[in-house]
Amino acid sequence: MNMRLKKSELNKLLGKNDVAPLWKRVVAYIIDILIINSIVVLPFRDSLNEIYKEGALFNVNFNDIKSVLLMSVIIAILSLIYWVILEYKIQQTIGKHIMNIHVISMTKKMDFSQVIIRNVTKISLPLLILDVLYMLNNKSQRYTERLSNTKVIEQ
Amino acid sequence: MNKFWFFIIIVLSLWLLSFLISSVFKVEDFGDKIAIIPIKGVITTDGFEDILRSGGVSSTSIVKSIQKANSDSSVKGIILEINSPGGTVVASKEIANEVKKSNKPVVSLIREVGASGAYWIASSSDNIVADPLSITGSIGVIGSYLEFSELMEEYGVGYERLVAGDLKDTGSPFKKLSEEEKSLLQDKLDIIHEVFIEEVAKNRDLDKKEVKEIANGFFYLGKEAKELGLVDELGDKELAINITKKLANVEDINIVRYEEKRGLSDLLSKISAYSFYFIGRGIGKELFSLRDDFGFIV
What we know:
The complex is a heterodimer.
Chain A: H1 7-14, H2 22-41, H3 45-53, H4 62-90, H5 94-98, E1 101-105, H6 112-119, H7 125-133, H8 143-148, E2 150-154
Antiparallel strand pairs in A: 1-2
Chain B: H1 3-24, E1 33-40, E2 43-44, E3 48-49, E4 54-55, E5 57-58, H2 59-71, E6 75-84, H3 89-101, E7 106-115, H4 117-123, E8 127-130, E9 135-137, H5 149-154, H6 179-204, H7 208-214, E10 219-221, H8 222-228, E11 233-234, H9 237-248, E12 254-257, H10 264-294
Parallel strand pairs in B: 1-6, 1-12, 2-5, 6-7, 7-8, 7-9, 8-11
Antiparallel strand pairs in B: 3-4, 9-10
C-alpha cells in the first residue's frame, strides 16, 4: 500500500504551513482590486470625468494636478483601510478568502503595525512591483512581508 | 462575527465613506475657474418646451447662472457659449443687462448661430469670438404671424368679433389687419428696432448711424461681421478661453459648465408625454379614417 503523504498533508501533521503559491496570491489581488475599484474608485468617477472631459490630458494645469493628487491620496488611504482592517481582524481579504489563503505573523500574534507595513506598497503600483520583485530572491515573501515578519499561507 | 457579514460590513462602510467623501469633493473647488454658460436655442423668459421638443433657453436661468458665477470668488471669468437664433425682446434684454452688470470679464463665443436677440446679448459682453462661418448679426425685429381668415371662410368657420376697445383683437390670426392696425404694430417694431440699434452701438462702441445702415435684419457671416466691427475675433472655444484668461489675468484655470441638469423624472415625464401624444395622434387618425369611410365621426 502506498503510504506516501503529500507535502501539504505532511506539513499539516507537523504543524507547518504551506506558503501560498504566487498564482493564488495574484488572483486574490486581482479580485481585491476589482472590489476596491467598485467601492472606492467608482464614487469618484464624476470628479475624474470632470477633469478629463475638458481635454485636461492635453492641457494639464496646476489645479487639475492638485485635485488629481488629492483624489489619489484619498483613494489610496481608503484602499489601504480595506486591506489593513480585513487582514488585521480576520487575516484575509475577500480575494484571499476566495483563494483559500491567509496571512500569518511569523513571530507573535499579528499587530496593527505589521499589517500596515505589509500593505503599504499597495497604495502605488510601482512600489508594489518593486516589493514583489524581491520575491525573485525570496520566493515566499515580498520585501514588506519580510520587514513585517508576515507571510501568506495556504489554509 | 461570521466572516461573510464582516466582509459585507467592511465593503458597505468603505463604499459609504467613499461616496460621502466624493460627494463633498468637487474638482472645481480647486483654484481659479472660468464659467461656461451655454445659451442654446430660442431665448424666452421661461424657456421653451413642448411635448416633442425641449429646447430653448430661459433668461431666468441664464441670469441666475451669471449671478452665481459673479458671486463665486473663484470664478475669474465667464464665457457665454452662444448657439441661438435669438428670442423674445425682453428675455434677450434681461440677459444683456445682467452681462453688463457682471463684475468679471465676459466673453461671448458664437459657434453656429448668434443672431438677433442672441447677438444683442453677445454685444453686451467684453469680447466676442465667432466662428468665421457662423451666422451672426441679424439686427432686426420680427412680428410676423400666420393669418388664416380665408382658410376659415373656406371651411365655413366664422369669426364673431366681440371687443370693447376697437383695437383689442389686433394681431388675431382669425382676421385681416386693418391699415391702422398694421401701422400701429409697425410702429412698435420700429421702436424695438431703434432700441436694439442703440444698444448694439453703445455696447460695441460704434456709431449709431453705422449700425443703422447694417441693421437691416439680414445676417452676416462671422468673417463679414468682423469687418463690420460686430465681432472682435474669429476663432473657437480655445481662443475664447485664452481671451478670458487674459482679461481675467489668470494662468491656470478649471473650466466649469453652468448647465441645468435633467434628472430621471424629466426623462420619464418626457417619455410619457411622447406616448400620450402618439396615442392621441393614433386615435385622431382613426377618427379621420372613419369619417372618410362612413362620412361621420363616432
